[in-house]
Amino acid sequence: MKQIYIVGKTYKNQTGGPANVIRGLSSALKNRNVNVQVICLSESFKKSALIRCLLKILFVKRNCIVNVHTDGLKLPKLVYVFSRIDKKNQYFLTVHGLYYIESRMNGTYSNKYAKIERLLITKFPNLICVSDLLRKRIELDFGRTKNVGTVLNGIDFIENKTLGTRKVCFETPLKLLMLGGVRERKGIFDCIKVVDYLQANGIDAKLSVYGVVDSQETYEKFNSRIEELKLNEKIIYKGNLSDKESVYRVIRESDIHLSLSKWDTFNVAIIESLAMGVPCIASDQCGASNAIHQGINGIIVDMKSDEWLKIVKDFCVRLINQKIEENTQIMELASVIRQKYDWDRIVEEYLKQLQFRELGNE
Questions:
Q1: Among 8, 45, 1, which Cα is nearest to 24's?
Q2: Which of 23, 44, 182, 279 has the fewest Cβ atoms within 10 Å of its own Cβ atom?
Q3: Which stretches in the chain have pLDDT values below 70?
Q4: Is the entire prediction scored with pTM above 0.85?
């Protein structure tokens, strides 16, 4: 049986992003009895062991597939070097983000790493993008169109038994949720604007913020802003969530999920929220926003529009006033989304992109 090697990072504290994708993908492949081996940096698997595994593939293995995932650029660059030498196996790079965009927003841009990213995106034999938004941006900014595919991220719920029990009833104060942390790129200050605008228009709302913090400077700016607007009791940062059970719990206990990122190649939290019947208000710069059925289980907003806050407010009012059957429609869509983005279904697209059957593995 032909073999697939998944390469990347899967540290325990990474509950989202590439690490979570690798876990979901590898598990779904194993469920299909695909011969897959995960060789990822983790607490128990060091760089020296990973390099030994890659060298074994380079010098011993034939007709295998190596799929490396971006979470940093050094490891993908190493695999790229191996791909230039190794003509016996196929190499794929799954791109989860764009360093040159995100680092500028975070204030961590390095020309050295930007050059590495350009090398990988323009020269790596095959690319897999996690959204059409990302694929189109790569085509626009790098001119790369050959051997580039899209496979959306999947979801794998742990609390399946509780999914259908969520009470879909929108009462004030609205319980808003933001899972992007205190990070400018994730739109934290736009989320503050939403709460302030709702309060000013007579809609009581409370926002719970979970996730990492950009920097001490950003955290101080965050606290200063909510104090200035007298929203200390309305907006609370509650720290980072350490496991998926906690993520699903806080989603289920919320009314609306805010995902107002300035740039997000996917953002699986959007899918997780919609799949649990929690409407999502997302920016048009989130790759996963395509899953939203506009005006039903959420809205997609153009953050450059002068009217975006009013549009958000109008949607919140509609949720508060809507009839029971409209709430039922949200849960019906949740069931559809759970099926569409289930890893056991997404893995089919991965196998197509990896040209798995073309290598003789039926």
A1: 8
A2: 44
A3: 1, 157-167, 356-362
A4: yes
